[in-house]
Amino acid sequence: MASHRPVSLKLGIGFRVVCLSATLFGCAAGRRDLTDDEPSGPPVAADAPIIHGANDGGRHPSVVALVSLEGGLCTGALVAPKLVLTARHCVSELASPYIACPASGPQVGRTLTAESFFVYHGDEAAKGPAAARGARVHVPRGDVLCEADVAVLELDRPLVGIKPLELSAQSSFTTITAVGYGQISDRGRAGLRRYRAHVPVVSLLNMEFVVGESTCSGDSGSPALEEASGRIVGVLSRGGPTCDGKGNRNVYTRVGPWTDWLVSLGVPAPSTSSDPPPKGTGTTPTDVGEACSEGSTCSGGVCVTAEPKSYCSRRCGGTAPRCPNGYRCTPMAAGGSACARK
User: Is the residue at 324 inside a domain?
Assistant: First the structure.
């Protein structure tokens, strides 16, 4: 398994860092048929990936950028006022740039210095001063990442004004929302917070799960959010061998098996409520049909070109929810399909 290529990111604290790349996991993919009527309608334009996602626009303020003087750029999720959940490979030296599972030997070395980490929580990591600095790093016992790529960064001060994300108690889910600061494509820039809803779960295992195309280098450590509640079900561990493509696969470590350990560090126990989050905090695109100029202005990352006005939409087909009434799943010129008005 190879790793994503490193990228550079210039930040406001006056130094340049190299992206701590996600390790890769590849597997074959099958294409599922569209779930709606035969395609027809206007051409559809998509823009602004996490990979084919949308600019976050402040929708997920609890998802933060982690930048280390010793490592690079990763993503994390605020789960308590002074605790950030991320991937272990983001806070540790790697024994090898290749991660094979099951492990045949040690995969991580020493833990990086906590004080080398700076935390940013805006839509663009390069803007403004750091909101906090690392004070302590917590990692599981052992020296492997397979099924155990989780860590918690304890901060030197609480992040005020930001509501921490909750852990999910759900054991089964079919789609997730991916949020992160990683590259927007194999060769794209990093440091912008983006998200992609309706990412299909390809394989659900006891300790990990695999999803389709969604993430890239710099998204490592980012949360997978359960779509119904917005709660965390996983932490991004590895993906690849490229970021783009229908057959791309990304592996998350499930948070459920690590609940006791996380609670022992001060993370609130998962909520057993199935209630959705308050209106306006969910992860499902809610602006379908509203006017747009480009995909990056829509919560689903898709702007349909139409007369007299273009309008926001979302992707469809495969495991994605069916299009709303009055819309039809229509092929996009750039690939994939989106909901377009009939």
Answer: no
Q: Tens digits of per-residue pLDDT, 182-205?
A: 877 655 567 889 888 888 899 999
Do 114 and 19 share a structural domain?
yes
Burial of 174-201, coded b for 16+ CB within 10 Å and e otherwise, reads ebbbbbbbbbbebebebbbbbbbbbbbb
- Domain coverage including residue 87: 8-23+58-155
> How far apart are the C-alpha atoms of 16 and 280, rounded to whole Å?
35
Q: Residue 297 phi/psi, 5° resolution?
A: -95, 0
* HSE value, Cβ hemisphere, 13 Å, CA-based, for 142: 14
75-100 pLDDT, tens digit per residue, is 999 999 999 999 999 999 988 777 78
Q: Name which of 271, 283, 232 is nearest 255 in CA terms.
A: 232
pTM of the model: 0.73
Looking at the structure of the chain, the number of domains it has is: 2
